[in-house]
Design goal:
With 553 residues, the chain is of the alpha+beta class. The chain is 60% helix and 12% strand. The strands form three sheets. The protein has a six-stranded antiparallel sheet, sandwiched between helices. A three-stranded mixed sheet has the order 8-10-11, covered by helices on one side. A two-stranded antiparallel sheet has the order 7-9.
Length: 553
C-alpha cells in the first residue's frame, strides 16, 4: 500500500465532489463484482453442461444476485457517514464467504473463481484505510487457506505463493491509485477554492477602490472597514490619531461590542501601540495570549488579529485592524491583501483631502469673485459722488463764469477742490491697499509727538466736523515711534469714516492711552455701530458692511 495512504480507521471527506467520487467507486466496484460472478457462473455451466453438479455455479449466481441487491442500497446516504465503513466491510466479508463456498464446492483452491477475491480486495483497497485493507487481506487469506486445507493444501506450491502475492499486489496498486486520485482531487479542489477566494478578495478590494473615489474622508474609512469584513474577518476597526498623536479614537468600527468602542485611548497601548512603535504590519495567531495589556480587549477572547498602519501624505494617520474569534496564524496572502487595502485607504484619504482643499479653493475663488464685484460696486459708488460733483461744478464755472460773482466762484472752486481732495484720498487708499498686498509699502518710522500730530489732523479736517462734535484726549509729551504719513492717513480714514457713517449730531471721540506694549489710539462714535454679521469680516480686503447702494456718500 502507498506510504501516503491515511492510517485512520475511516476518512470522512465532506467535500461534495470527493464524496461523489467515492460513490462512483462503490457503484463501479459492486457492478464489477456481480458481473464477474455472473459471467463465471454462466460460463462454467455452459462449459460443463446442465447435467453435471452445478452447485458452485449456482452459488456464484446467487452471489451475483445478492451483489445486485447490495448495489441498489442508498449509497448516496451511506457514503461519507459513519455507516459507510461497517456496511462495506460487512458486505465484503459476506461476499468472501459466498466466493469461498463456491471455491470449496468447485473442488479446491485451483478454481478460477479465485479471481473474485481480487475484485473484493480491489474494492476494499479503494475505499478503506490501510488498517482495514490489511484486515480484509488477512481475512481473504484465511478463507482461501481454509479451503486449501480441506482439499489439496500444499504450503510449498508456487501457485499458492503466486495467488496470495497477486492479492497483495492488487491491494497495493488499487489503494495507491485510489488514494492518489482522491488526493489529487482534494488538491485540485483546494487550489480551486483558493483561486475563488483570491478572486473574491481582489473583487472586494477593487470594489472598495471604486467606492473610495471622490468620497469624503469619513465615507472612505467606512468603505475600508466594510471591505475588511468582506475579506472574512469577524470584526474590523479603523483608529484615527489625535493631532498630537498621543491618543487614538476607534472612529469606524464593525463587529466589536459597544462597550469597547471609545475615544482617546493612549496611542501606546495594545496592538495599535505596537504598530505605532514599529511602523509596520503586525499579525498574531492568538491576541488574548499575545497581549493582555488592554484588559477590556483581552477579556473578549480575540483570536487571530491583523493591524496595519495607514499613511497619508507621508504621515501615519491611523491603524486598520481586523480580527477573528478563532485562533490561527493569518496567511501571507491575507496580510498582503490587508496592506493593499490600507494603502488604498491612505491614497483615497489623500485624494479626499485634496478634493476638500480644491473644494475650499473653489469656494474661496467664488468669495473673491463676489468680493471683487462688491469692490467694483463700492469703488464705483465712492468715485461717482466726487466725480459727479467735480463735473457739475466745473461745467457750471465754464458755462456761467461771467454770470457768477466772486463769492459764488470761490465757493464753487472750494467745493470742487474739496471733492478733488476726497477723490485723491480714495485713490491713495486704493494704492495703499495694492502696496500692502504686494508687500511694497515702505515705512519710515520716526519719533512723533502724538498730541501735535492729532492736532494737525483734526485742524485739517475741521470743516468736516461742522455737524459732528469732536473730542480729543491725548496727553502732552506722548511720543510714539511710527511713520508720520501713514499714521496721519490712518487717523484721517478713521475720523472720516466716523463722520461719513453716522447721523449728523452724533459725537466723535479720539483718545490715546498708554498700554504695556505701547500706545492705544481709539476713534469712537455714538452712531448705529456695525451689524453683528459684519463684525467678523472687519479687516477683509475690499469689504464694507451694509448695502453699497444705500451707503451715504
Amino acid at each position: 500500500m502507498s506510504d501516503h495512504a491515511p492510517t485512520s480507521p475511516v476518512r470522512y471527506l465532506p467535500d461534495p465532489e470527493v464524496r461523489e467520487f467515492r460513490i462512483r467507486i462503490v457503484h463501479f466496484g459492486l457492478q464489477a463484482q456481480w458481473l464477474a460472478l455472473l459471467v463465471l457462473g454462466a460460463s462454467s455451466v455452459l462449459a460443463r453442461g446442465m447435467g453435471e453438479d452445478i452447485q458452485p455455479e449456482a452459488e456464484l449466481i446467487i452471489g451475483a444476485a445478492l451483489t445486485v441487491l447490495v448495489t441498489v442500497l442508498p449509497w448516496r446516504r451511506i457514503v461519507g457517514t459513519r455507516l459507510e465503513i461497517p456496511v462495506l466491510a460487512a458486505w465484503s466479508i459476506g461476499l468472501l464467504i459466498v466466493v469461498t463456498m463456491a471455491i470449496d464446492s468447485a473442488g479446491g483452491g485451483r478454481s478460477n473463481i479465485f479471481v473474485v477475491y481480487g475484485l473484493t480486495v480491489v474494492l476494499s483497497s479503494a475505499l478503506f484505510s490501510l488498517t482495514m485493507q490489511t484486515v480484509m487481506l488477512m481475512v481473504t487469506y484465511a478463507f482461501y487457506i481454509g479451503v486449501l486445507w480441506r482439499h489439496d493444501f500444499n504450503v510449498d506450491s508456487p501457485d499458492l505463493v503466486l495467488r496470495l502475492g497477486s492479492l497483495a499486489v492488487l491491494m497495493f496498486l488499487a489503494g495507491h491509485l485510489s488514494w492518489e486520485l482522491i488526493r489529487q482531487k482534494e488538491a485540485h479542489l483546494a487550489a480551486n477554492s483558493e483561486l475563488v477566494r483570491r478572486a473574491e478578495v481582489l473583487a472586494a478590494v477593487a470594489r472598495a477602490a471604486r467606492e473610495m473615489t471622490l468620497r469624503s474622508s469619513s465615507e472612505v474609512l467606512d468603505v475600508v472597514v466594510d471591505t475588511a469584513i468582506e475579506l472574512g474577518f469577524a470584526t474590523a476597526d479603523l483608529s484615527l490619531f489625535s493631532d498630537d498623536g498621543s491618543t487614538y479614537t476607534m472612529a469606524h468600527v464593525r463587529g466589536w461590542p459597544e462597550v469597547l468602542v471609545r475615544a482617546d485611548r493612549p496611542s501606546t497601548e495594545g496592538m495599535t501601540g505596537r504598530v505605532v512603535a514599529t511602523g509596520k504590519t503586525l499579525a498574531v495567531a492568538d491576541y488574548s495570549s499575545f497581549d493582555a495589556s488592554v484588559e477590556d480587549f483581552a477579556g473578549v477572547g480575540v483570536g487571530a488579529l491583523i493591524s496595519t498602519p495607514i499613511y497619508a501624505e507621508g504621515k501615519m494617520v491611523g491603524v486598520l485592524s481586523a480580527a477573528r474569534w478563532e485562533t490561527g496564524e493569518p496567511s501571507e496572502e491575507e496580510i498582503e491583501v490587508f496592506e493593499l487595502l490600507a494603502s488604498l485607504a491612505g491614497r483615497a484619504l489623500e485624494g479626499a483631502r485634496r478634493f476638500a482643499i480644491e473644494r475650499e479653493s473653489v469656494a474661496r475663488l467664488e468669495e473673491l469673485d463676489r468680493m471683487k464685484s462688491d469692490f467694483i460696486t463700492t469703488v464705483s459708488h465712492e468715485l461717482r459722488t466726487p466725480l459727479t460733483a467735480i463735473q457739475g461744478m466745473g461745467r457750471t464755472l465754464v458755462d456761467r463764469w461771467d454770470d457768477l460773482d466772486d463769492e459764488v466762484r470761490r465757493e464753487l472752486i472750494g467745493r470742487l477742490t474739496a471733492n478733488a481732495d476726497s477723490l485723491h484720498r480714495i485713490i491713495v487708499t486704493l494704492l495703499d491697499f495694492s502696496r500692502i498686498e504686494a508687500g511694497r509699502l515702505d515705512t519710515q518710522p520716526v519719533a512723533i509727538d502724538l498730541k501735535q500730530l492729532v492736532h494737525d489732523v483734526t485742524d485739517r479736517l475741521e470743516g468736516l466736523f461742522v455737524t459732528h462734535p469732536l473730542a480729543t484726549s491725548v496727553d502732552s509729551g506722548t511720543t510714539v515711534w511710527a511713520d508720520p504719513v501713514l499714521l496721519e492717513r490712518v487717523l484721517e480714514n478713521l475720523l472720516a469714516n466716523a463722520i461719513q457713517h453716522t447721523p449728523p449730531g452724533t459725537r466723535v471721540a479720539l483718545a490715546a492711552a498708554p498700554e504695556a506694549a505701547g500706545i492705544r489710539i481709539s476713534v469712537s462714535d455714538t452712531g448705529p455701530g456695525i451689524a453683528p454679521a459684519d463684525l467678523e469680516r472687519i479687516g477683509e480686503r475690499f469689504f464694507r458692511g451694509g448695502d453699497p447702494n444705500t451707503r451715504p456718500s
